[in-house]
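Milestone M4 deliverable, item 7.
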Amino acid sequence: MLRVLSIRDAARLREFLGEAGYTEDNLRGAMGMKDLPSSRLRNYARLLDQTSEPNCIHTLVRWFWIGISQDEVEAGRHLPQWFVPLAMECGLLYKDGNDLCPEAMLFPETQYIYAADHTKKIDRADSELVLWPNPTSRLLSRFTVRRPSRATLDLGTGTGIQALLAAEHSEVVIATDLNPRAVAFAAFNTRLNGIENVNCLQGDGFDPVAERKFDLIVSNPPFFITPSAQYLFCDNPMDLDQLCRRLAREAPAYLNEGGYFEMMCEWAEVEGQPWQERLAEWFEGTGCDVWGLKGYAEDPADYAHERVRAINPSPEMDSELYHSYMAYYRERRVKKIHGGLVAMRRRTGKNWVFLEEAPHTPKDAFGDLVLQTFAMRDFLEAHRLDEQLLGIKPKLAADVRLEQVFQQTEGGWKRESLNLREKKGINPVIALEPSVAEFLSGCDGQRTLGEVIAAFTPRVSAPPELVQKECVDAVRKLMERGFLEG
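Output delivered:
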């Protein structure tokens, strides 16, 4: 178990690692450590060859990235005298005969360094494995609302990734986890990175924060829908998607008015029930507005194959595990497994739920887009009647562009498609008819929608009532998608 360093020793270690070149840019760039060490990738030989020259940075990489033991005397030649005693004192290294062995991986990412378990622990099926930064944690961090928060909760903190990032805009952060090893890693990481406004607590669900309320709650819970409970960090311990449902229904009680709960999740689509209906039920009566984004959908057979491949290092066990997964899905009539992101905002009044598919998630942070989407949905809910929209002054968003694609034909160029594109959006492209594009050219923020429609109506051969209805419908849809501002 890792032990928290003193503030002074943490600063000393942090500064040394940076000066030695143990940074994301150096490891992933100049040193070529693009992949994690993995028995499945069979890349240990390559990684060891790349770090064969005895020096300081290679010694650190062999311990804290590749995860191999090294002779104490030889390793000590390349490090300051204080390093090994400090690393042993806090649990990063332990002694085995003449060798010093790494107890943790050090994973540099952007401005932080995260201690986590080495990748070899997956092969050993260690149920209390503490995972390193990964695609789901990165996606949740990009999705998170970054505004000042009096109190933030990182529910299921793992290595503390969300907690450290939230500490930058929060007065205080509480980081909780059921796994005591994860709590120890998160506490170690907050101190290692010089962050002092994070408090790490052990416990199940919201139990450690009873009676407290937060402006922001983020969670990357164990959401995989499997019959297995092998890993605490990823395997949902309840039937199908019931853990994520439970969190969605319990979280609002811990939110201040206007506070947000944001979560990565998966949910099942069962025979005879659309996925939207099953997901929407999670939020009934919660007192929250909800934006749900479906990012992917998988057939149970594909899902089972991928999960078995990921957790099982013994190919001879594949068949037994795969058939147990498929029996589980068939018994529960699972047709698809969906995954994505959910944002809930506690608000007094009549609440709304907006669920959509997200074929594209922005590569950059899009917490501001979450706030904009909620604000726009509020606006549209307050302007449900067509007549209410006629007085607004719509304007195309600043990053929206109109694109035309032409195909060469015998007679010249023929337009193949006409699309409106937005750089930041979840649905970044929407196909348009030429007449709609012409109508949108008048949405400059200077005239009311009623005035724009009145100027446009004589250009088309259709009854004015129909033109108005279709124009208002188009504006409503484009505002929903972020292409138009009110």
